[in-house]
Amino acid sequence: MDLRPGPRGLLAAGDREWSPLFGGSPGIPPTAAMLFPSEAPLTSQAYDFLANLVYERSRIRLGPDRQTLVAGRLRQRLVALRIDDYADYCALLKSPQGADEVDALIDLISTNHTHFFRESSHFDLLTRQLLPRLAEKSIAGMRPLRFWCAACSSGEEVYSLAIVLAEFCRLRPAVQWHIEASDISQRMLERCQQAIYDADKVSVPQQEWLERYFLRGIGDRDGYFRVKNELRRQVTVRYVNLFQDVYPVPRGLDVIFCRNVMIYFDVPSRNTLIERLTDQLAPGGFLFVGHSESLIGLRHGLRTIAPSVYMRPE
Ligand SMILES: C[S@@+](CC[C@H](N)C(=O)[O-])C[C@H]1O[C@@H](n2cnc3c(N)ncnc32)[C@H](O)[C@@H]1O
Question: What pTM does this model have?
Fold first, then answer.
C-alpha cells in the first residue's frame, strides 16, 4: 500500500488513550514547527510551470487567479526545504530527486474541505431508498456491499458513510459491507487512517451515534474523538490518483462517492473520470457526485436517480 504511516504520537499508543464517550478528559499539542515565511516572489514563469505540472499529474486546473493562493501555500515549503527562490524549487521538481516533491506539491495545492454528513440528503437517500435494494442484492449474491469514497480527504465522509451502513445493518446483521477510501493527498490519507477528529467538528444527525461510534480522548487527547475500531476495520485507506492508469480498487462496486472534486477538473477530464467510474460500478450501482457537480453537459450512460445521484443501468 502506498500510504505512509501517520505521525507516531497519535497511533503508537493504540486505543489505550481512548475511552468511551462521556467519561474521560486535555489536547494534542501542536506538532507543526512555526516557520518564518519565505520572502521569494512567485514569478509568472514559475507559476505557469507549477500550474502545468499540477494539471499533468492531478488534472487540478489552477487558473491565473490562483497565483496568490499557490504562493501562500508554498511559502513555508520553500523555507522547510531551505530553498531561496521559486526557480530553484522548479529545478528540484524537474530533477530525478524531485519525484516525491511533486506529490508534496499536489498535497499542498489540493483543497481538502470536508465535514461529517456533508450534503446530508445523500445519506438520507441511501438509507431510505438505495440500501434496502442493495442489501437484497447482497444477500441474494452472498457477497458484501462494496463502497468507494474516491476523493475522501481526511475521512469525515468515509466515517459518515460507515455510520449509516452500521446503523442500517444493526437490524440486518446478515449484510456485510466494506469501504475503500482514497485520495491523492498523503497528508489527508494519514488523517483518514487515524480517524481522530476535533470533538467540536464531529457533528452527527443523532446524538446517540456519538457514543455508539466514537471514543473520547483522555489525557493528552482530550478534545478529540476517535472513530471506534469496529468501523475503522471496515475501511481500507489507500492512495489513488483518479487519473492514474489502473485503479487498485475492485470493480463491481455498489456505490461510489466522488463528491466535490470534479469542480477542480476541466470538461475533458470530467468526461474521462465519469467513464472510468462508470466502468468501476456494478450494473445497478450508484454514483454520487457533489451537489454542485451535476453531469449535465458531460458524456455518460448513467440514469439520473436524484440530483447529483446516478445509476449504472442494469
Ligand atoms: C474538497 S475535498 C472533497 C472531500 C469529500 N469528498 C467531500 O465531499 O467532503 C476534494 C478532495 O479531492 C482530492 N483530489 C483532488 N484531485 C484528485 C485526484 N486527481 N485524485 C484523487 N483525489 C484528488 C483532494 O486531495 C481533496 O482531498
Answer: 0.88
